[in-house]
Amino acid sequence: MRSKLNFFSDEKFRSIFFQTLVIGLFALGIFFIVQTTAYNLEKRNIATGWRFLTDPAGFDISFSPFIDFKSTDTHLDVYFVGVLNTLLVSVCGCIAATILGFLVGIIRLSSNWLLVRVAYIYVEFTRNVPLLLQIILWYSILIQLPRVKQSLEFLDVFFISNRGIYSPRPVFETGFSYVFISIILAFISSFFIRRWAKKRQDDTGKQFPVLSSAFGLIIIVPLILYFIIGSPLSFDYPALKGFNFKGGMVIRPEFIAMFLALTIYTAAFISETVRSGILSVTKGQREASASLGLKKSWIMRLIIIPQALRVIVPPLTSQYLNLTKNSSLGIAVGYADLVHGFGGISLNQTGQAIECMVIVMATYLTISLTISVFMNIYNRSIQFKEK
Amino acid sequence: MKKLLSILAVSVFAFAANAGTLDDVKNRGFLKCGVTTGLAGFAAPDDSGEWAGLDADMCRAVAVAVFGDRSKVEFITTTGKSRFPTLASGEVDMLARNTTWTISRDVNLGFEFVGVNFYDGQGFMIPSSLGVSSATELDGATVCIQTGTTTELNLADFFRLNGISYEALPIETNDEGKENLFAGRCDVYTTDASGLSSTRAAAADPSKWLVLPEIISKEPLGPLVRHGDHQWGDVVRWSLNAMIIAEELGITSENVDASKGSNVPEVLRLLGVEGSYGEMLELAPDWAYQIIKQIGNYSESYEANVGPDTPLEIARGLNALWTQGGILYAPPFR
User: The domain spanning residue B37 has which CATH number?
Assistant: First the structure.
């Protein structure tokens, strides 16, 4: 009896005991959920398994910019189309929301009374109206654009209607790959020039025009190469034929509605993050740099932003995660994302609800964790490095 | 510990097991019936907020068979996507929701189709101003389509077979389809021909819309229940059959009382004067009499909801009795 008591008064033993107990109960809970589900599925004669993934889907997906999808392709292909569409709207949304968010955040700290008010109203309005309503609002506006036969025309090559925005599609001919390679090489060499210039400035104090030389490398050199090879690029122009425009490139209203709504909604949150980040840098920093004679734009770029980023990046990460997860609302306007295509149509046509949902959830988890990993790496790189 | 585990396991499984649906419905005091979110003629609230339509009548007929009261039914709206999980989870006792009877739904999803209350087929509706007269001329068109339906699969097959291209615009409900078609976001709306007639009737100017002559699929629509509860399946099946047999025998809601004195044996059996068919189904002896009295026979329900005199203007066609050139046929009542 005594020895038992002693065991429990041992802190290490106690903590291991309770942790094992909690994990055990948790595993038991999971076990029962799985068991009950399997039992009920069997009882209702609902077939389970992953076989359906290799069955032909039987339906068409129109919005598939990366993969040429046909109705004879499998449900697994539906999944990939969905993942790519989810990533497309998420990546576009994250980039645009970051730019807009930084802009609005900085505007809110400016001294222009009108701009500050407008930014304030924008932030408070979009933050406090449910995202789903905003998506539907944008879609309802876009669908009221002129019909396809009465499309708005710009320069005879851009057409806007409620079927989307049609524009010429670049067609790369043989030889264009050289131009493409030269652009990539230009980017790589610009990166090294920047490193070299920084080192030179640290050593000698002399500056090197990095921006203009990078511009020359990335734009002018490939351009010259392009003309030397003989303009290996043509355009496929959209033309109204029958029911729709044929040829060209199109951005669908479903995508535009999702992109606008996600960007505008998330940017409002990001702008607040940016504002708080900038305000977190003490006034003394600004005054000290001003007294050193730095230009106003330099103070922002070299003193304020690097310190503000330490505060901005962690909440920014969670905004990126929110945006990606919110893209699943695409189902409201028929945007063919992961939830709509695989988690909706495939689920419904095959009836494999649990399998489809498990896959969809695992995919969102993977995407979210990947974003977190990269943002954490970036976050670590901008933290104070104590010497 | 082992004992505790087994108690836990038993309680979990006991929770999952359910009694017969008929008993559940009787104990609850009303029927839960899954219908569409609103498809005029099949199931949609009328001017006074009462659900009306061919499918709504099907629900009411079952409620009458069980309770003898047409009002003892709760209508639960389901979308094309939500209907099957709603039925499978037991949230509704039956579906009467323009649902096509297919092998995969019957077998793989674990449901049981108990009959057909409307023989339909998939068609196309376009603005008449497009000047198209056949579905094969639809190359390149944008087509609005309800997701999670058999029509979605038929559509892909049809265009593939004919080697013409199209762009699908997936939508969730019939209302969304209407909105997109009327706004010109899509050129064509495709669904069951009956649904098209219903949509066309709801347009501001129906004459501006055209239903193309092609019917590209078989769509037998009927009520369904969960697999494995045969007693309940029988109740729903014979509620439908009773309405069809009543039409065959010429019994209507008006002459049903007089028919009780008929000398035709099948009439007497149907109305519960002879035999104990109600008892076999665990229903009241006059269950079929009440259905005919309160709802009417199949023809009355059809003419009142979707027939030529309604805005839908759908002729009987395939849905006429087998004796009158259609394929409506119920097994004998004996």
Answer: 3.40.190.10
